[in-house]
Every structure is written in C-alpha cells, then in structure tokens.
Amino acid sequence: MSNNYYITTPIYYVNDVPHIGTAYTTLACDVIARFHRLNGKNVLFLTGTDEHGQKVEKSAIKASMEPQQFVDQNSMHFRNLVEKMNFSPDDFIRTSEVRHKIAAIKFWQELEKNGDIYLGKYSGWYSVRDEAFYAESELIADKVAPTGAPVEWIEEPSYFFALSKWQDKLLEFYEVNTNFILPISRRNEVINFVKGGLQDLSISRTSFNWGIPIPEEENHVMYVWLDALTNYISALGYPEDTEKMQAFWPANVHVVGKDILRFHAVYWPAFLMAVGLPLPKCIMAHGWWTNEGQKISKSIGNVIDPFGLVDDFGVDQVRYFLMREVIFGNDGNYSRDNLISRINSELANKIGNLVQRTVSFAHNYNEQKVPNVDDQFIEQMHGSTIFQNISKIVQDNASLIAEYNIGGVLNNIMWIVGEGNDYMEKQAPWKLRKVDPEKMLEAIYTLLEMIRYIGILLQPFTPRAGEKILDILGIDKAKRSFAFLSKEHVIKPDSKLQTPVPIFPRIEQKV
Ligand code: MSP
Predict the structure, then answer these.
(1) What's the pTM?
(2) Would you say the CB of residue 234 lies under 6 angstroms from ligand 1?
(3) 471 in a domain, yes or no?
(4) How many domains does the chain have?
(5) CA of 465 to the centre of ligand 1 (A)
(6) Of all protein residues, whose CA lies closest to atom 5 belonging to ligand 1?
(7) Full residue range of the structural domain in which residue 396 is found
C-alpha cells in the first residue's frame, strides 16, 4: 500500500471573502492532513481558489475591475486565511494559473477524443449564484433553485457532456465502493438522484468571456465546474507530470460541503471514467453551519468572519471549537456562548490547568526537572490500566480518522485529559509532598508522561498549543510524531523542564 496520502479542499469562489463555512472545510482537511503526517504518511494537501465563471465576472464588473485584477486581489484573502488559521497546505492552486489551464484543456480534449462531447443548444434554467443548471422539476418556487438561489432562463449554443451514458456505470461503482460517498446518509441521496435519470450536461457557455476558452472554439468558455473540478489533477501536473500523477492519483479524499456533493460524486466521477482515469477513493461531505440558530446569509448580514473570530479568541481556540462542536458530517451551530464555554471549561480549566499545575509542581519541588524515576517504575506505570487504555486510544484514533470521525479523536484526547485531572485529584501531590515525597515524584512523573501524550495528540487540532506543551516538557522536536507514543520514548527522567507559560487563557465574558 502506498504511503502517499492526497487530500483536497474545494477551491473557493473568489467573488466572496472567506467565511466560517469556507474556513471550516479547509480546517477539517488541515486536521486530517496533519494527523496523517504525524502518523508517518507522505501527505499532499491541496487547497486553492476557483476564479472563473459568470459569478466571478459579474462581481469583477460590479467592483469596476478587470477580472484578472479582481481575482488576484481576492484570491489573496484565501491565502491570508491559510496563515491566519495556521493551515498547512502543500500547494495552493488558482484556476487562472497557466498550469491549470493547460490541464483543463487537455482534459477537455481527452473527453472529446473519447466521444463524450457534442455540440448542441442549451435552453433551461441556470443559477449564477450556484453556477448550476437546474431542471424545471427541481425548482422549489417560481425561478427559485432548491438551494434558494434565483435562476434565470438561458438559451445558447453549448457543448454537452454525455452524462446520461454513464448512469449505469456510476450506479455500479457506488454499489461496489460502499465508502465512496460519506456519510452513508448522503450516499443514498446521490444514488437516488442518479437513479432518477441523468441528463447530458452543458459544459460550455457563450454569453460571457471569463473562463477557459474551448480549444478551437473562440466563442465558448468552459463551464466553470468542469474547469474547477480538474484542479484536483492540474495540481498534480496533469498531463505532463506522470510521476506525480502516479504517486498521488487517485486522491484519498475530496472533502466538500453537502451543497456541492453532486458535482463531486456524480459529474467528476463520470468525467474521470470518460477519460479513463481512476476515481477518487472517497468524497466526504460535511454539513453546514448556522449562526446562533439562523441560516447564514449575506442578506441577513450574519456572516461570521473567521479573521475576526481568530483575533477575538485565538487561532487554536477557534480551531478546537469548530472541530469539537459538531460531529463531522452533521450540520452545526455557531454560538458565541458555546465557543466561550468550550474555551473556558475545556481548554483553560481542563488542559491548561493540568499542564500548569503539574509543571509548577515539578518546578517548585523538583528543581524544574522531570522526576528521576527508575526503569522499574516506568515499566510498572506503562503496565497500569490508565496507560493501557491510553495505548488503545492511540490505536483507535487511526481508525477514527480513517472514517473521518474527527470529533471522536478529540473525545479520546479529552478522555486522557480527564484521566489526568482525576489522577491529580486522587494522588493529591500537595498532600504526598509531606507524607511520601517519593510517591509525589512518581505521581508528577506519571502526569508529565500523560501530558506528553496529550501534547503530541493535540498537534493536528491545536498546533501551537501542542507545540507549547511539548516545548515546556522539553521534548525534542524530532520526537513529536505518533511513533513516539510508546513506552520506549517516555519523557526523560531528570531532564529539564521549561517555565510554564499560559496555554489557554480564560475568556472573560463581555456583557
Ligand atoms: N467553487 C466551488 C467549489 C469548486 S470545487 C472543485 C464552491 N465554492 S464556495 O466558495 O462557494 O464554497 C466552498 C465550500 O464552502 C463548500 O464546501 C461549502 O459547502 C462550504 N460552505 C459555504 N457555506 C457554508 C456554511 N454555512 N457551513 C459550512 N460550509 C459551508 O462551492
């Protein structure tokens, strides 16, 4: 089995600035990517921006800018978010880049070569906001798409992709590859949609210019979704870089929001089948966030700005909250009170306090050092029920991540934190100090070793806090991956500890 792991976010439309929804998709991918890196995989994590199409062109016109200038400026916001949220992509692709255009054109030519493209005329409904075609039967009200977006009637010459031809092949594929669409509930939704009958798909537009021109067809630009979906292979250097394609294609997972599942689980696989490329292993669809119980929308004016959130609460705090608050795959609700309460009751009171109290104890009563316990004690400690359970958890985490159960991994980490706090209360080192100093040192050692596990495991979620914890413990930078979560790599007795710094300060509620 290959050690390579390829994970992608959707590429974001640059007509809009980043918001909590777009930040969420990338964050989930970042956590998964960091997890796999720490678990020894060779990860390629891709994100980027979707820069063509009618929606972006309209926004550029509204801003009185040339489209290229407009997309250059707006793509920057997404790059800035990468910094702000401490995301770790290996590549950032923009669909206005030459490398992408070359790939998209080649992909078109391959579709054409295999006889899957024909010229016709599209007349039907189109939503610029969704950049999607809708059948009359799908509309939920007069000129309203199922997403709530307005639709308009368009009639124009268009190239078509013979999607209907792939209906049975797609159904067979879903049947055999039961984990292709996750969560399972979404899988049924897609299967029902395909069973309902697939229409051929319009894949070029003639009523505006901002897109990739169709080879030898000056009036047509490529439909923005066909253009956008190929980003997943253009970033691998398709068609030239066969080595990189070989190494990373098919992708392990495309993480997407539930609103864009159809494009990824129906259109994209059909395109790939048509050109003879393997299909991604999984399309993982997550849910949508509401704000204090309300649907998020620009017109309501309740869009949540991730930059402001990080300024107010801190990057690790926001990352933690977004991953902890909802089961990945389900819808979630942002509430300021819940965010503050998670920060205070979990990060500050549970994790922060455990580290602070333990390390302060070692400072005050053991000369800033890790207690000098012997091998026999370490052996016995690692054989104890707590450490046996911790080892199980470490194993368990890998399977949870494989199922995209990100919250499950956090639950596990918080379980260790809970055990640490209980152990501290039961052992009461402040009492032992007077009656049994040796036992006190053993208790402190045990707690420090538990904190080492916590620090290492927290890294994908709260990378800075994880780093701070491990720095305080004096853990070598080269020894912070999951491979070091074993008794062979315990925290070194008698080694120096750093002065503890606050990791998760409490947030005082402003009225
Ligand atoms: N450009 C397309 C994707 C092309 S991928 C080949 C696109 N872009 S987007 O910027 O509109 O949205 C990107 C992601 O943000 C989607 O996965 C979408 O689900 C997510 N979200 C947008 N609003 C959201 C919430 N309120 N909550 C959670 N995620 C949401 O679609």
Answers:
(1) 0.97
(2) no
(3) yes
(4) 1
(5) 28
(6) 10
(7) 336-489
